[in-house]
Amino acid sequence: MILSVVFSIGFYLKGTPGYFIILFFGGWLTWTFVEYGVHRFLMHELLIPGQKDNLFHHHEHHSHPQNLRVNFLHRLITLFLGVVILWTAILRNDSFSIFAGFFTGFLLYNYLHYLLHQPICRYIFPKIQRAHILHHSRFPNQGYSFSTILWDWLFGTLAPKNFEITDKMRENYFKSSRSGKSE
Fold first, then answer.
1. Which of 3, 23, 24, 82 fits 107 for a cystine, CB–CB 3.0-4.6 Å?
2. pTM as predicted
3. 30 and 98 Cβ atoms separated by less than 8 Å
């Protein structure tokens, strides 16, 4: 319903300067919904039990948070694609803007997820990192999205606000993986 309203407003604004902005925002918002759904229902095995390791290696990621499968080259390629897609969307100023917003959401998610697994993020995005550490440790069935808390709030899956991150939780979250892989 939220996405329908955003896109309806966007198509109503066709021909105005706000057209690109609202469609781009709608694409980004769509990405955040997809991020939440994939993480909650596929990566945490609610739809396909026993398959998260085959689909996304997500169990391994929870066991070894520093062992991220996406490397620098992957991020560089997606950044280049993101710039090309964004530029194309600006030039076209049509419904392609939705895809540009969606891809930008994916791109930001990719970089933010990497950043959340770095100690420096404690100072840059402390609340988001806190929620992600809680998801990796005490509350794996809460806090599925970190691009926005909208969907966790709407579907009642926010991690508790008053729960403190212990030194042991931080140590486990930031320890190097056993497999020797690193970013």
1. 82
2. 0.80
3. yes
